[in-house]
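Support case: user asked for a sample of complex input and structure output to validate their parser. Sending the pair below.
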Amino acid sequence: MILFRRVLLAAMAMLITAPIFAQGEMGAEAQNAVLITGSNRGIGFEFVKQYSDLGWLVIATTRNPDSAEELNAYAADHDNVVVERLDLLDHEGIDALAAKYKDQPIDVLLNNAGLMKGPEKSQMVGTIDYDEFIRTYRINVMGPLKVSEAFYPNVKKSDHKLMAALTTGKGKRGIPVPGFSLYKTSKASLDAMQLEIALRWTRQGLRVVTLLPGRVLTHGETDAGGTNAIPIEESVAGMIKVMDEFPIELTGTTVQWDGELIQ
Ligand SMILES: NC(=O)c1ccc[n+]([C@@H]2O[C@H](COP(=O)([O-])OP(=O)(O)OC[C@H]3O[C@@H](n4cnc5c(N)ncnc54)[C@H](OP(=O)(O)O)[C@@H]3O)[C@@H](O)[C@H]2O)c1
């Protein structure tokens, strides 16, 4: 946390000619835009609500808009929220959505969606289900990469130029029990892929951050393990702040919801 703040201050001083915009300081003419995957529930839906409250145009994507009742009801009440279909397994569909929005700058591309489950035998070494292995990697690694490739031109032409993805586990200190191997290793691959994206596009002015939301109880769990769960509103507000302040010098790194830089 302290390290991140120190680096942030130094970076902000260096960026005196290219200031990072605070929300609401963009001028009346430009409406910031965010595209969020997995918007229909959990952390994704909370991102929709908080970015909508900030006055951003929210392109709220979900793999099945027809059954996204809460999201559709929310969008019906909020002019700045539009619901679109995006399935991470459907690359043609992703390209078609990018073509539909080809003239729309996207300030923040938020790869939130993921297959998050376990513990289960199919993810346990000794009884790995290899079909599930492929499906998990297609959703958690190839999907976000395809979204980043498809919407790169939109991000490049925006003011904020930020690509983010949600990961899990503090580096090597991931979920410390068996039964989550596909989830954990797919997210480790996502982390590595984020670094590749940063290597490729930081010279074009893009900022690439991988976000750690903390433990957020999105599946109806109770906090039986103790006190380490974070209220969803707090986690999402923290991640929005991290993205808003994220300096290009830190591109490719992972930052927790509260600003702690993860090494
Ligand atoms: N909650 C936590 O404690 C925690 C901790 C660390 C990291 N994360 C990460 O944070 C992100 C959000 O977490 P969450 O708790 O909100 O997860 P969640 O409640 O399980 O929601 C997952 C979202 O991803 C969507 N999704 C799944 N497969 C998809 C596909 N093929 N195409 C498009 N969307 C798909 C789901 O859509 P459907 O409703 O259609 O299935 C849902 O909207 C995930 O990437 C997760 O790994 C969460």
